[in-house]
Amino acid sequence: MGDAVPPPATAFPLGLQAVAFWSDRVPDWQTARQLLRSGNAPAEGEPLRPPPPQMLQGAERRRASPAVALGLELARLALAAAGADAQAVESVFTSSHGDVMVTDELCRTLAHDPALLSPLRFHHSVHNAVAGYWSIATGNTRATTALAGHEHSFAGGLLEAALRVRQLGTPVLLVSLDLCPPPLMQALAPARQALGAALVLGPAGTGRQQLALAAAPASAAAPEPLPAWLDGSYQPDLARFLCALARLDDNDPDGIATPFSAPGRTPPGAELRMSLGGQLDLAVALDG
Amino acid sequence: MPLRGPPRPRMRIAHWTVTTAAGTGRDAFARALAANAGALRRDDFSRAGLDTWIGRVEAVDTVHLPPALQALDARVTRLAWLALQADGFAEAVRRAAARVGSQRVGVVLGTSTSSIAESEAAYRRHAATGGFSPQDLRPDLHHLHAPAAFVQQALGLDGLSLTVSTACASSAKAFAVARGWLQAGLADAVVVGGVDSLCESTLHGFGALQLLAPNPCRPFGADRQGISIGEAAGFALLERDDGPGARLLGIGESSDAHHMSAPHPEGRGARTAMHAALEDSGLAPDAIDFVHLHGTGTRLNDATEAAAVAGLLPHAPHAAATKGCTGHTLGAAGILGAAACWLALEQGLRAGTANTAAVDPALPLALALRCAPATAPTRHALANAFGFGGSNVSLVFGHG
Questions:
Q1: Which of A126, A169, A277 sits opposite B112 (nearest CB)?
Q2: Which of A87, B234, B352, B376 would staple B372 via disulfide (CB 3.0–4.6 Å)?
Q3: How many angstroms separate the CA atoms of B298 and B159, rounded?
Q4: From the CA of B157, how many Å to the nearest CA of chain A?
Q5: What whole-number distance in Å separates Cα of residue A287 and Cα of residue A268?
């Protein structure tokens, strides 16, 4: 065997330092967490619009595509909650379908009058548009990547972020989001809601929630059903992860997680299985 | 002080293949590079017939997928299929899977446009008829990961699979994901690939940005007028073992943090990526003796890359750009650049810069850039791939 063979690692421990959340039904993690813990559903109403990206000003803010707006705002909130330096982190952006609003406009223009295609629309259409705008807005020149894995987009992104944390020993930003498709795209690739989250992940022992990732043979068990208000986005695995996370702790003021050594209380941990495509699962152990 | 992770193992390129406008398989690519022959043609793909030249893989128009894979039939999957069959690549992957187990072989593919040509066609049909046809309604096709899922299925693999989509740096960045999996012991072999097929979005999109050349592109030429879009697919089987083949020695990544569709004027991000790749490989700059430039043929891209390369590699190694041969194949550009490096390492074939008659004397790269190919033993080679969003990747390859 070669001298370069590393020992096969079985589990990758890491710390979750912060979470930011948005869906077109529920605007923030604190509310989402309360709903997930109580089993209640949010009030019916019109879908929410993505929050304005506070990192952009004036014309840039108005021109930002919906995915860029959402991704930048989620990243800002998560990094602020973690107290992390936005210029010092590497970043991983993941999305199953990318900016379906931009794809829809692009395809409609191409179908009707290709000569009218706007250069702005075209450069918004790249899958790494959110990553690109985020690096410009923060001045972060470090590595960033943009991934997709269909229904395992979040699991694939989480694994990539974990491997980067392991290599760097410093925090990594993970942003995972998908929009709700407009009508024509809806017919081609059905989904009925938007869902996004940003996580700041760091080495084991950092943050107040510890995770351990491992690859495992695919489980035959059907995944636990999601609450209706969180079911139906392009990212079911992100929804499952957030459900598991929400149930772990009681009274964390930041809506992240209580210290896991909280006195007088030993909340149970959780294990979550997410497909990685093929016949492998990502097993995620969450310390209580 | 930041903790450093485990040292980077050197990954072996156990097998590879590319399919471009120059033909199916690596020999067609090697012959085109050795002859410095362009394989571009006037645009006969876009429905509008644009005033530009393209790199079209003719065989895609006649290849058929086997019945079991028909559900994912699309130009991009036919292109991927065609490439997988060349050079015994699919067979080499099957042998690897038989040896280590199909769950231990991963797939990571770089693509910029994925299956968007199928979404475009569906929207055209809807505009013309007011409805979709059944073939439009394929949710498993209308997402970015569809070509990678197709490749995984076509090769009978069951391991990790992921798509990297960072515009024209996609398939170069895919090597970073693959190396991470191998290093972490999550896979024993990884199929790394890049695939992008011709579509209306990119032809009209680059047209809207006024970046399409009206003639076959001339990277680094004084008379360069822009890009020629192409399509291509390339695959490599990465392993950790000691067998024959080139080695992936270093990867460098950076972000320009400057502009969505224009590079940093002094090539800051490009230089950072190359420097990081050298550092990762443990090599001094003067160890590099072949550079495959990203070289798209636009005024600004080539000027900034020239500044970055000349600044970092003052010893003026043989540097060349091959998009005048294949066209700019976007998400597949990274693996084509890597393949040009493997030809330099394995055969001593150092590509030239097809279509470029003379280097722009205003560029600081004039000393290094070679219009003509050459044959010379090559120790270490570096490939650049830069994309929209300021996404920069450099790869360093060498011998085992």
A1: A126
A2: B352
A3: 40
A4: 7
A5: 7
3-state secondary structure at position A244 = helix
Report the chain B residue with the minimal C-alpha distance to residue A127.
Answer: B165
Q: Does the pLDDT value for residue A264 go beyond 90?
A: no
Element spanning B55, H or E: strand B53-55
For A135, name the nearest residue in chain B, comparing CA atoms only. B257
Taking an 8 Å cut-off on Cβ atoms, the answer to whether B159 and A280 are in contact is: yes
The minimum CA-CA distance between A128 and chain B, rounded to whole Å, is: 5
Sort out which chain B residues have CB atoms less than 8 A from A123's CB and list them: 205, 209, 260-261, 388
Question: Given its phi and psi angles, is residue B377 left (phi above 0), alpha (psi -120 to 50 degrees) or beta?
Answer: beta
- Give the Cα separation of B269 and B255 in Å (integer): 6
Structure tokens, B301? 């891209």
Residue A103: Cβ-neighbour burial (10 angstroms; 0-12, 13-18, 19+): buried
Beta strands A172-178 and A90-94 are parallel
Q: Is the pLDDT of residue A263 over 60?
A: no
Residue with tokens 């490749």: B151
State the DSSP code for B287: G
Sign of CA dihedral B61, B67, B69, B72: positive
B315 catalytically annotated: no
**CB distance A136–B102 less than 8 Å?**
no
- Spatial neighbors of A220 by CB under 8 A, at least 6 apart, are none
Q: Give yes or no for residue B172 having a pLDDT over 50.
A: yes
Q: Is A160 helix (H, G, I), strand (E, B) or coil?
A: helix
Contact A18, A199 (CB under 8 A): yes
**DSSP 3-state assignment of A50?**
coil
Phi and psi at residue A200, to the nearest 5°: -105, 120
The torsion angle over the Cα atoms of residues B94, B96, B101 and B105, rounded to 10 degrees, is: -90
Q: Which of residues 202-221 of A touch B (CB under 8 A)?
A: 203, 215, 217
What is the chain B residue with the closest CA to A142? B254
- At A9-62, the pLDDT tens digits run 468 999 999 999 999 999 999 999 999 999 999 999 999 999 999 999 888 888
CA distance A268 to chain B (A): 28
Percent share of chain B, pLDDT over 70: 98
Distance CA B10, CA A157 (A): 24
**Distance (Å, whole) CA B201 – CA A121:** 10
Cβ contacts of B69 within 8 Å, gap of 6 or more: B77, B81, B150, B153, B154
Q: Which of B365, B346, B352, B358 is nearest to B325 (CA)?
A: B352
